[in-house]
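Write out a sequence, fold above all:
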Amino acid sequence: MAEAFLGIVLENLSLLIQGEIGMIMGVDEEMNNLFSTLTTIQSVLEDAEMKQLQSRPIQNWLLKLKDLTYEIDDILDECATELSKLEHRNSKSSRYSLKKLLFRHKIGRRMKQVTEKLDAVAAERSKFHLREIAVERPNEFAATRETGSILNESRYIYGREEDAEKIVDILVNQVNDNQEITILPIIGVGGLGKTTLAQLVYNDPRVVEHFDKLIWVCVSDDFDQKTLVKGMIESGGGSASDLVHLDALQRVLWELLNNKRYLLVLDDVWNDDQEKWYELRNVLASGRGGSSIIVTTRLKKVADIMGTLAPHYLKGLSDEHCWMLMRERAFGQEKQEFPNLEAIGKQIVSKCAGVPLAAKALGGLLRFKRTEKEWNYVKESEIWELPQEETPILPALKLSYHHLPLSLRQCFAYCAVFPKDSQITKEELIFMWMAHGCISSKGVLEIEDVGNQICDELLFRSLLQYVPDTYKPTLIMHDLVHDLAQSIMENKVPGTQVQRTNFRSASSNSKIRQVNLQEKFILFPTSYQPEMDMPLVLKNFLRLRILDARWTRIESLPCVVGNLKHLRQLNLSGSCILTLPDSICSLWNLQVLNLDYCRELEALPKKIRDLINLRHLLLQYCRSLREMPSKIGELTSLRTLSLFIVDRNRGNRLEELQCLKLGGNLTICHLERVENPMDAKKTNLAEKENLRHLYLEWEHENTASKSSGEEDIERDEKVLEALEPHPHLETLDIKGFGGRHFPVWMSNSTLAKLVKIYIQGCDNCLHLSQLGELPHLKFLRLTNLARVEYIIEDESGNRLTSVQQFQSLEKLYLTTLPKMKGLLKEQVMMGSAPKAFPNLKELNIRDCNSLIMASLSKVDRNAPTDLYVDFKEKLTCITIETNLKKLTIKKAKK
C-alpha cells in the first residue's frame, strides 16, 4: 500500500514541478530534492512489500515511510492550494505580499525538514538488502502456484456436487453439437475452490468418456503463447521437448487436436489482453464439434473476453460444509472425540466466510492443538494476525492485490476503513477516493468517471461485489477480501465513537485524515446518533480530508470549521443542522458538501459561490430551504446540484443553471415563479447528457387561481416545453404543472433511456402525451389528475393500430383520477382496442370512481401480474388475460 500511495504523491509532485510551482513559491530546489529521494525509494518498494510478511523490521520501515509520505502529501496540498488562490485572485501584487513571503518561508522550512527525515529512512533500506526493480513490472515478485488435473480421491470434497453436475451437463449434453469451441469461465475469489471444481469435472467418468482428448494447463501470470502451447502438447500426450520455434509448436498442437473432441482446462488465468487470447484461440480451432474449454479466473474481465457461455459464479460453502472441511484437517483420522473443541471450531467456521481454502488452512493450523486455550486463540484472532507460515490464506489472496495496476492498489486498500459486511454506494466510495487523492482526472475523463472505471475493474476482479436489489448501485466486500485489505493497510480501523482513522498509524491526532461522528459506520442509519463534541474534533484534527457527521443531532457548526484547509468532503446528511457558518466558504478544496435529508436547514451561506472546487452539492429533501444563494452558476466545477429553487431576483433565476455540467439528480422547485419562458430555455437541460433524474415542481397558491388564469396556464405549458431534457434521462417527475397539455417531447421516442415517469397534482391536464410510445418505459404513476379520462387516446382522432402501446411497461399505478373512464379510449367507446401493456406485471388502481372498463391482454400469459382495484358502482368489466399472481378487488367507501 505504501508503494501505491507513493506513486500518487510522486505524480502530484511531478505535476507541481512541471507547473513551476516550486519556482513561484521559492521552493524549487526543495521540490526537486524530494522528487529524487522518493524516486530512489520507489524502486525498492515492490520488493519491500513482498518481503514484509516475513520481516517485522521491513514492516516497521514501511510504516515510517508511509507516515512521511502523508506528511509530504499535506505539504504539497498546501502549495497547490496557495497557488490556486493566487491565480483565482488574479492579483500580481499578491505574489510579493508579506503573507506570501511568510508562506514561502514556512513551506520551505517544512520541506527541508521532511526531506531530511526521508533521507534517513532511505538510508535504512540498504540493511534490508532490498532489490531495485522497474516500477513498470509490478508483478515480477507475485507468487504463483502451479496446479495439476489429478484429484486425490482420498480427500473429501464438500458442497461442490451441484456445481460439478451443472457443468458436466453443459459439456456432455448441452453443447455437444456446437461446431465452434465452447468456452465456460468459472469465476470466484481466491481460495473459493475454482481449481478443485475444475478437477472434479475433469475427472468425472462421463467427461472422460465423452471427450477424445483431455488437456490441463496452469496458466497463472504467464500467458506466453509458446509456453502455453508447449504445455498443452505435453499434457495431451505429445512431445515438445526438442521444439523451439512457435510455428513448430503450433503445428504439433494442431495435429494433436485435429478432428478430435477435446476438453482443455486453462486454470488460473489473469491475462486480459484480447489479442493474446485471439492468437491462442486460432491454434485451438482444429478440434471437432463439441470441443470445450474451461477457464478458471478471479477476473470477470477475463471471462468477458474469453467466454462464449455465461460464466459460472462460484459461491461460498455453507458453514456446515466448511466445518466438515476444517474438522477433517484438524482431527484427521483420530477416533477420539473432542466435543468442547468442536463447539469452538463451529464458531471459528464463521471466519471462513464460505471459503474452502480458509477452512482447510484453519483446520491445518489446529491440527496438533488439543487445548481449549489454543482453539480460543484462533477463534478470537483476526485471520491476518495468525502466523503467516501456518495459514496460506492471505498469501493466496494477496496474489490478487499484486496483479492490480498501481493506480488501483490504493483504491482497493482504502476499502479497509469500512467494517466487515458494510455496504456503501458506489458514488460515496468514489467521493471518498477523490477526497484522499487516490484518483485524478485523465484527459477528457472527469475524476468521477475515472473512479467509476476503477470500481468496475475491482468488480471484474471479484475484489468488490454488487449488493442486489438496491436503489443506488451499492457495493460490499467479501470477508476474506476485507481481511486482505486490512492486512495491506497494516492498521486496524478503530471503532471508537469519536474517530475512524485510515491510511496511517497516526502518532498524533493532527495526522488523522478522516473522522466519523457515529458510533457505527453505517450507510442507512435507522436512528439518530448522539450529539458529538464538534469543537473538540475541529480543534484537534486539522488535516481532515473527510468529516462525516451524518445523522447526528448537531444543529450548528463552529466557525473554526473554516480552518480545515485540506477538507474535501463534509457530510452532514440527516443531521439537525439549521444554518451553516460563513467560514465554510473558505474551504477552498471542498469537493463534496452533502446536506441530504437536512430537513431543518433554512439557508445556505450567501458566499457559497466562493467554493470554486465544489463538485457535488447534495440537497435532497431539504424542505425547509426557501431560496438559493445568489449566483450559484459561478460554481463551474459543480457536477451535482440536486436542488435549485427558482426566484424572481437576478442571480437566482433559471439562467444560473445554463453553464453547469450537471449530472445525477436535479429538482427544480417553484417553477411558477418563472416570468419569461425563455428563462427556462436558458437552463440548457437538453445539453446535460449526464443528468439522469429530473424533478420539476410548480407550487401555485391555490387551485382556483390555477384553473382560472389562462395566462398562467399558457406560461406553464411554454415553460415545460422549454425544459426538454437530454435523451439520456432515466426518470421524470412532474408535480403541480398547471397546463392542459404536456409537451410533445414527453412522447418522443428518442427518449430511449426513460424508464420511469411520475405525474401528480396536475389539475388542469386534459390529455396525457403519447407516453405509450416511449420504448423503454417500465414504471408509470399518475396521481391526482382531476380531468384525465383515458391513459391511451389519440387526440387527432386516428385509431391506435400502428404502434403497440406501453410495450415495456411493468408497473402502472393510478391514484385519484376521478374522471378516468378506462385505460384505452377506443376500448370504452367501441368495446375493443389494439393490444397494449403486453409486459405489465403490476396494476394498482385506487380512487378512480368513474372507471367503466379495465381490460388488458398480455403477450406472455405465464407472466405473473399483481392487480389491485378500488372502485365504486360504475365499474362494469375487468379483463386480464394472464395468470394472476395476486388479485384484490375492493369497493371504495361512498
Remarks:
- The mean pLDDT is 81.
- Residues 56-89 form the longest helix (34 residues).
- The chain is about 35% helix and 15% strand.
- The first strand starts at residue 182 and ends at 187.
